[in-house]
Amino acid sequence: ALEELQLGPDALRAVAVALGPGSFTGLRVGMAVAKGLALARGIPLIGIPTLDILAAAQGRSRYPLVAVLQAGRGRLCAARYRWRNTWHRQEGPILTTWEDLLTAITRPTLLCGEIDERGYPMVQEAGDRVIVLPPAHCLRRAGFLAELAWERLRRGETDDPATLAPLYLNWP
Description:
five-stranded mixed β-sheet; two-stranded parallel ribbon; elongated; 5 helices; 27% strand
């Protein structure tokens, strides 16, 4: 990407990385590369939770938002957000199931993220309580990671490469 912009490594001012939840190996590799770049270049490192990246892709709404990612074995990673000039995490991330997640939704709520073939019929059965956002809004995009990291950088909020760790969720 730097080459396409005719920029070299000296143009980097910070490194942003998705913290997870997500793939165990993917998180570890991504974190190692980000830490290596930040340390080698002497630039700030900024970690952003993966579900926050999904939430950032959504437009303004009066309804609460739940972002979900598949965690395997019938489980989901989920977080709940409220809009206040931007999406703010209210709860989570948690490791849950479709049944438990949908039971906890008692009023109209936006849903974005990964809905698998097992979850889709349950989401439909939830009726008006769940408003599924369009698929294009349910993808993790690097641009939203960059925007969230930029905002943290502007506020002077950076992470220590020695202590920043991937966000893993454990089943209770």
